[in-house]
Amino acid sequence: VADRITVMIDGALEPTSADAILSFQDRRQGLRQFMLRDLRRIGRGTWTIDGIAAETDSVRIAGQATLPWLRIGCGDHVAAGQVMQFGRDAPSPGCYAAAYLKSGWAPLEATGTWSTSPVATLQIPTENMTASDLDLVIDASSYSGMGFYDRPQTVRIAVNGRPVASWQFGTTSPSPITPITLHAEDWQEDAALNITFETSPLLNPKQLGKADDTRNLGLFLRSVVIRPKPG
């Protein structure tokens, strides 16, 4: 984790650098984005920002030519149908939803994030969603479900404390993931949607002799979308 980022631009590129954007994942505040010209200038072609807690492998600089590919944070409001991505380099369309990972999750990887606690929690703001029946669609797998080990893992999901699904992942079984119906009573005015994932057992690749990873791994979460029911 870095508490300061210094950006140095080659002299030949400096005239066009003012419109570039610095983005990074801050452990305290989620995805943060700054126009380079708004940072503190400390020399020719050099800017800095401090007082942060940036994941070092999340730092990106985008110029005008690459702005369409810059990851955009989901922010404080999510609309129905918006894809919430939990991978550091997950492809568009979608928004960067790392700020919704409240507890029990490892740092982001390229395409998603692992739960490393028996219970992991998402907290999704829902002010822009209508209190009606919607589908909760989760793109995820587990350590066993990805073929790394042949012991089944069970994931139980609850929404605002209400059990809504129980999935079992294994190396030989098809993916158990299906859309989950959210009912009107699941919505609480001016409150977030709390989704918990309870995984049993967690599997440790190092202890299993499968890899050098010493973490206890459960669910691998890629994306979540809350969408209107079809038809």
Q: Can you summarize this structure?
A:
By secondary structure, the protein is mostly beta strands. 3% of the residues lie in helices and 42% in strands.
Tally of strands:
17
Work out the radius of gyration.
Answer: 20 Å
Shape, principal axes of CA atoms: globular
The H-and-E topology, N to C, reads as EHEEEEEEEEEEEEEEEHE
Helix content: under 10%
Mean pLDDT: 82
Strand content: 35-45%
Biggest sheet features: 6 strands, mixed
Distance between the termini: 46 Å
Total helices: the number is 2
Structural class comes to mainly beta
Low-confidence stretches: 65-69
Give the arrangement of secondary structure elements.
Blueprint: E1 2-8, H1 14-17, E2 21-26, E3 30-35, E4 40-43, E5 46-54, E6 60-62, E7 83-85, E8 95-96, E9 101-103, E10 113-114, E11 119-125, E12 134-142, E13 153-159, E14 162-169, E15 180-182, E16 192-200, H2 205-208, E17 219-228
Parallel strand pairs: 7-8
Antiparallel strand pairs: 1-5, 2-3, 2-6, 4-5, 7-17, 9-11, 10-17, 11-16, 12-15, 12-17, 13-14, 13-16
Plain-language structure description:
By secondary structure, the protein is mostly beta strands. The protein has two helices and 17 strands. The protein has helices at residues 14-17, 205-208; strands at residues 2-8, 21-26, 30-35, 40-43, 46-54, 60-62, 83-85, 95-96, 101-103, 113-114, 119-125, 134-142, 153-159, 162-169, 180-182, 192-200, 219-228. A hairpin with a 2-residue loop joins β13 and β14. The radius of gyration is 20 Å and the shape is globular. The model is unreliable at 65-69 (pLDDT under 50).
